[in-house]
Every structure is written in C-alpha cells, then in structure tokens.
Amino acid sequence: MIAAGLALITAGMLWYTQIPVDGSFVTHLLPGYLMVGVGMAFSFIPMSIAALAGVEPREAGLASGLINSSQQIGGALGVAIAATVAFTHTKTLLASGDSAASAATGGFALGFWVLAGISAVSVVACIVLVHGRELEQTATT
Q1: pTM score, two decimals?
Q2: Taking Cα atoms as reference points, which of 101, 104, 100 lies closest to residue 112?
Q3: CA angle 95, 100, 105 (to 5 degrees)
C-alpha cells in the first residue's frame, strides 16, 4: 500500500512536469491533484503504522513525535529544494529571453522533475526497507 501511494505521488509530480503555459485546470492540473491526494492517503497512514510497528508502548509517544517531526522537516526541505530549483531555472530562462509565463512554467517543470526524482527514490526505499512480514508479526503479538 505504501509503495502504491508513493508511486501515485511520483506520477502526480511527473504529470505536473508536462503542464503547458496555456493549460487549464480540469485537463492539466486536476489529474495531478487527484493522483497526489490519493497517493498521500494511501501512503501516509500506512507509513505511520509501519514506523510505529514494534515500538514498545512506553516509547510510542516518542516514536510518534519522531515520525511527525521527520515528515514536517522532510516537507520543508522538499519545498525549499523544489522552490530553489524552480526559481533559479526561471531566472535563467528569463535571462535567455523567454517570456515570463514560459520561463515560470519551465522553472516549475524542472522543480517538479526534482520532486519526482525524490519521490521515485522513496518508492525504491519503501520496497527495499519495509517488509510486510515484520508488520504482520507485530500485529499478531
């Protein structure tokens, strides 16, 4: 479930890289929003369950705080990295003579490519690191 959700988020980021300058909401934005939204629902809740599996009851609060802090810091870093890439590339495109709309679209497309790459790495990490058998053993004990 986690890998499927993360794959949907990756697909949404890839969708956003293709948005044209003159795109419309329904055809160019909404499909990506739906993929990311469903992907987040499919991945974040099971991710919390996986992170807390096997944690002793007396340490559950600490573990929960660590996962929430990690998600907040990771989100902030992701936004900072994507924004830096997007605005730097936009500035470069403007300097090369592109229109403001075209430069902004190109800049954000590159930012979404970076996010798609990070998201794809998370899919691979999930497949390699999360083992369903361990979660099942924890649930039965």
Answers
A1: 0.86
A2: 104
A3: 100
